[in-house]
Design a protein that fits this description.
There is one protein chain. By secondary structure, the protein is α/β, with parallel strands linked by helices. It has helices at 10-22, 62-70, 104-111, 117-126, 130-139, 144-160, 173-180, 186-192, 194-210, 231-247, 278-282, 305-315, and strands at 2-6, 28-30, 50-54, 74-79, 92-96, 217-218, 222-227, 252-258, 264-269, 288-290, 294-300. Helix 10 (231-247) links the parallel strand 7 and strand 8 (252-258). Helix 3 packs antiparallel against helix 4 (117-126).
Amino acid sequence: MDFDIFNGDADGLCALVQLRLAEPRDATLVTGVKRDIALLKRVAAGAGDRLTVLDISFDSNRDDVARLLAAGAQIRYFDHHFAGDVPAHPNLQLSVDPAPDTCTSLSVDACLGGRHRAWAIAAAFGDNLGDTAAALAARAGFDASRTGLLRNLGESLNYNAYGETVADLRHAPEALFAELLRYPDPFEFIDRSPVFGALFEGYRADMTVVAGQQPVRETPAAAVYLLPDEPWSRRVSGVFANDLASRHRQRAHAILTAKAGGGFLVSVRAPKANPVGADALCLRFPSGGGRKAAAGINHLPADGFDRFVEAFLAAFAG
């Protein structure tokens, strides 16, 4: 039996689209909202089963990787988040690159020799790697108009992944993947699929709502935003952080979104001018993790607000 286990954001979706266009396979899909990363807990597999894992932290799934390998499963794993110590095992094929200017889809693109590069470029835009994506688009021969379309696609796919539950999302990741896979060329998806139009309009509407938000704490080097407990704010928290990071390249940003049951969901972006430190900060808090340029905390208790803000401002003091 085959399993495709992937983050439901632009990077995870586009990584799997590239692989399944190049290597078609009928597989059971395992995914969720962007912050739902302990996905291997859901998988029961054994000898002869093949698992493809994309864009979820190896460190957060370490125990389940060991469990599945011990049961005889074969695991092919692509990621770009903090991994920690990685075991050697004959049934584990691991590609992890935590460099701040890459993402999982770009690792898959390299593995496939660029066979579906436009999807990788869209993913890089969605993962807030605009400079990397634009350079790759130029080398691929895309003009400004087509590069802009790939940016819109990547940002819209990434926007769709944010939410406390799948009910917050405009499209469930499994259904969205199935729709994307129908279009080997992402420009066909943009031109022909009604899903893209709905995603892009939803993205623009939510970004219009959030545009009026002001920071609750601000220094020349860092800014903290607090969003309310609303579906639109949960959907937009990550892309709002990306947008702020792109517009204020010398500044770090933290977006804290109130959760229905109390506490906060946290998104952190290191300054574009020096994209390091986000993961180190978030790993200091339970349920925190990510990569050097962008990281988060799945649940920050309400009484941890002041501690986090002070730690954030100190970490990015300039």
